[in-house]
Amino acid sequence: MRTLAPSRPPPLTCPLPPDFATPAGTAAPEPPVTQIAKAVDKQQRRVRHGMVKERARILVVGGGYVGMYTALRLQQKLKHELKRGAVDITVVTPDPYMTYQPFLPEAAAGSISPRHVVVPLRRVLDRCHIVVGEVTSIDHTKRSATLTTLATEEEGSGWDHISYDELVLAPGSISRTLPIPGLAEYGIGFKTVEEAIGLRNHVIEQMDIASSTRDPAIRDAALTFVFVGGGYAGVEALGELEDMARYATRYYHNVQPEDMRWVLVEASDRILPEVGAEMGRYTVTELRRRNIQVLLGTRLESCAGRVAVLSDGQRLPTRTLVWTAGVKPHPLLASTDLPLTERGRLACTAQLTVDGAEHAWAAGDAAAVPDVTAAELGSLTAPNAQHAVRQAQVLGDNIVHSLRGEPLETYAHSYVGSVASLGLHKGVAQVYGRRLKGYPAWFMHRVYHLSRVPTFNRKARVLAEWTLSGLFKREIVSLGSLEHPRAEFELAAGGKPHHNPSDDSKGSS
Q1: Which residues span the membrane (predicted)?
Q2: pLDDT of 100 higher than 60
Q3: pLDDT average, residue stretch 465-490
Q4: Which residues pair with 146 in a beta bridge?
């Protein structure tokens, strides 16, 4: 076990030698305890005047919305302290980039390049220490976190320890799954850029299979696409991919748009609850006009053998089952000594501190933050990107205020509204009480997210790609071999190529 960051150095004191004698006529020196007390009082006076003198180690767990934006805010606010070494910021993240998730559906549809959906943390957080790894547990009482890095397995050292003074806990969330037979074997998630690009390749490959097979059962299963979950991720992914696949059929001589079957399964009685009931009903109508089945009040009971069994009795042979039925708190939260709510999120205050734990902060999906703007007492802010980005800014400011002995700010933000894309030139929106649909909503969706994606570099690249995609035709190339780039070489070298269970046609008929 190692310690990545040194512990805080002890106070620099110089004890008096035992044979030290006070010269006659001079005042006796103050005891060391008094000297230390005066030094601490001087330190507090420096803090009260807006200066951070004592070295503070800030640990940010997670490199998503909250993690990246908080570290970025701290970089800006503590620029001088970072230069003179009074502050040290360490960001521990599983990936060296932040994924802008609202762009995942467009990346899956080929409208945006995958590398422009992510923001490299080392470039943006150039004054922070980026550690690619995962925190496995936190002992906040001891101000210590246990983590594994990419080098841990190679070195055989077990795990690492990192000490901190201020903790920002923002590991985000993971997909909320259910114990459904076959889901782990055949389900496809839609939360990361790798999953989005993998799904795009998969959909095009299924069209290739349908175009080349003579077996009608295999063809029908290949052209049946089932999406479970009627939230943002499910509806936007379905809308964009259906739009892309419909366009791609013009290049297949024996696959027509009407040959494909797209199904959206939602357990509740509505979809897109964030945009309101009226816009939700409009979305259902629009999807059905595109021959997309929307099954409300329906659950997935099994997908074993590549057959989706629904609660209404339908059995759908399919090679594509996309699971977007919500998220749950990251498992790391259960491995800490911090207070949690009944739903497993961190209990937080409106100042974004962890309730009852000093020097611990949280925001985003992992935090249950009180909504001080809500009329109903006890309401919490929604775990979405709109709140996460704004909370991160207040969180960064409050850490600076805490280090400087200043009053903390209260997070207060009224929900502006929501926008959702349903494919090229199609969308729904509810902003400041106004409802938009069709092209205006789609345009607002793009403008809003272009303004929110981090860094001018990414904004310019995304805008350029949107412009080029309007001038040229869509790309319909599948690069599924990228997932296993060594397969061809392994076969040429006499080895056994990697086998992907998802490519197995067993059970598709």
Answers
A1: none
A2: yes
A3: 76
A4: 137, 161
* Contact by Cβ (8 Å): 306, 183: no
pLDDT of residue 208: 94
C-alpha distance from residue 411 to each of 265, 379, 432, 451 (Å): 36, 13, 20, 22
Sequence-ordered list of residues with C-beta below 8 angstroms from that of 458, at least 6 positions apart, any chain = 100, 116, 119
Q: What is the pLDDT of residue 48?
A: 40
User: Residue range 19-37: average pLDDT?
Assistant: 40
Contact criterion met (CB below 8 Å) for 448 and 300: no
In whole angstroms, what is the distance from residue 497 CA to residue 486 CA?
Answer: 8
Are residues 70 and 60 in contact, defined by beta-carbon separation less than 8 angstroms? yes
Q: What is the 3-state secondary structure (H, E, C) of 313-334?
A: CCEEECCEEEECCCEEECHHHH
Q: What is the DSSP string of 397-428?
A: HHHHHHHTTPPPPPP-----EEEEEEETTEEE
Query: In the CATH scheme, what is the code of domain 1-18+33-174+329-415?
Result: 3.50.50.60
For residue 230 the two structure tokens come to 């009627």
- Assigned token pair, 307: 């057959």
Q: pTM (2 decimals)?
A: 0.81
Q: What is the pLDDT of residues 330-389, one digit of tens each?
A: 999 999 999 999 999 999 999 999 999 999 999 999 999 999 988 888 889 988 888 898
Q: Across residues 104-122, what is the average pLDDT?
A: 91
Give CA–CA dist 280/11, Å, rounded: 62
**What is the C-alpha separation between 54 and 228, in angstroms, rounded?**
52
**Could you tell me if 213 and 263 are in contact, meaning their C-beta atoms sit under 8 angstroms apart?**
no
Strand partners, 167: 59, 360
Whether 1-18+33-174+329-415 and 183-325+416-483 share one fold: the answer is: yes
Q: Would strands 292-296 and 261-266 be described as parallel, antiparallel, or unpaired?
A: parallel
pLDDT tens for 44-64 read 434 444 555 467 999 999 999
How far apart, in whole angstroms, are the C-alpha atoms of residue 67 and residue 136? 17
Check: CB of residue 145 under 8 Å from CB of residue 138.
yes
Residue ranges per domain, the chain? 1-18+33-174+329-415, 183-325+416-483
Geometric angle at alpha carbon 385, from 426 and 88, rounded to 5°: 145
Q: Which CATH number applies to 183-325+416-483? A: 3.50.50.100
